[in-house]
Amino acid sequence: MAGARGWPQVLMTPTDHPARELARTVAQAAGLSVLAAARLDVVSQPARFVGALSDLLALGPAAAGGGTTPPTRRVVIVVDQFEETFTLCADEEERGAFIRALVAACRGDGATRPPAVVVIGVRADFYGWCAAYPELVDALQTGQVVVGPMTAAEVRDAIVKPAEAVGLTVEPGLVDLMLHDIGADEHGVVADPGSLPLLAHALRATWRERENGTLTVAGYLRAGGLRGAIARTAEETFGTLDAAGQDAAWQILLQMIQFGDGTDDTRRRVSRTELLSTSASAQNSASAQNVSAVLDALVAARLVTVDADTVEIPTRRCCARGRGCASGSRSIVPRR
């Protein structure tokens, strides 16, 4: 978009409280203190959000330094995993206010330039949920970009080019085997994008089994292949834990799954503080410190991922096995 270089950017996921998270991340992007987020009361006064957003632009770093904020400056708000609005937020009022605020931010009041550009990323199986909100229907009809599955050629590049960039070679036949394992069809289309995080894990495991700077078919098979690699890593990690640690791992992983009701299970991003507190409370013998050590082990094994203050499962393929855990299984590995 012309002139967009230097615009403040907000990347967020809805979490359990999308309106509150929107206020927090927008205020943070504008370089303001956490107290400024209180001005963006999205739930109780969603109509004021657009005006407050414009004020934040005017009060951003450029103005604070004595400069003049360009009148065309806008906030770019990217909402990833928008389906969390429906799977995690239990408050219909807050959900509606969040959606109305996003729409108002990119439409403005009709008299002035809208203060924001809003991009949402949502899974295809939640399209119908979005269509239930009139505010989103126009965006679905006129503003959507459908992101299809990667082609086999694109996956091939994703495997080979990073390896070549660091001086590794890829044995002939390895890429074709990986493409077969992720389900690339005769037209070269990867049918299940959910396999890609598993492929990333398998590649890391294959790299650990490399031979003289070469990623080999034998190394890939030793690592367990596409589905076996992450299962093997999970089993090895689980085996290093004592009984209390295994219980803690079970509690940690279950908290990061939102079980669907008529839809697929989804990942649930959880704050580290909530995760440690809830997991410790679920076990009489576990302290937050012990649970933290187990979480660190899961992170080191790349079975979960963390950012500044949240934790999540890297692929929703793990969610299927989590449902098995909830019904009595004690295994923490994904469904094979």
Provide the fold topology:
Elements (H helix, E strand, L loop, with lengths): L8 E4 L5 H12 L19 H10 L2 H4 L10 E5 L4 H4 L4 H16 L8 E5 L6 H5 L2 H9 L9 H14 L3 E2 L3 H8 L14 H13 L5 E2 L1 H7 L1 H15 L3 H13 L1 E2 L7 E2 L2 E2 H10 L6 H13 L4 E2 L3 E3 L4 H10 L10
Parallel strand pairs: 1-2, 2-3, 4-5
Antiparallel strand pairs: 6-7, 8-10, 9-10
Helix pairs in contact: 10-11, 10-12, 11-12, 13-14, 13-15, 14-15
Structural account:
The protein is built from 16 helices and 10 strands. The protein has helices spanning 18-29, 49-58, 61-64, 84-87, 92-107, 127-131, 134-142, 152-165, 174-181, 196-208, 217-223, 225-239, 243-255, 272-281, 288-300, 317-326; strands spanning 9-12, 75-79, 116-120, 169-170, 214-215, 257-258, 266-267, 270-271, 305-306, 310-312. It is globular and about 65 Å long. With 336 residues, the protein is mainly alpha-helical. β9 (305-306) and β10 form a beta hairpin. 35% of the residues are buried. It has a 3-stranded parallel sheet with strand order 1-2-3. A 3-stranded antiparallel sheet has the order 8-10-9. Strands 4-5 form a two-stranded parallel ribbon. The longest helix has 16 residues, at 92-107. The two termini are 44 Å apart.
Summarize it.
The chain has 336 residues and is mostly helical.
Question: Number of DSSP helices?
Answer: 16
Give the low-confidence spans. Answer: 62-69, 319-336
What overall geometry do the principal axes of the alpha carbons give? globular
Helicity, as a percent range: 40-55%
Largest sheet: 3 strands, parallel
In the sheet with the most strands, the strands line up as 1-2-3
Number of domains: 3
Structural class: mainly alpha
User: What is the radius of gyration?
Assistant: 23 Å
Strand content: 5-15%
Annotation, overall tally of beta strands: 10
Helix-strand topology string: EHHHEHHEHHHEHHEHHHEEEHHEEH
Distance between the termini: 44 Å
Mean pLDDT: 78
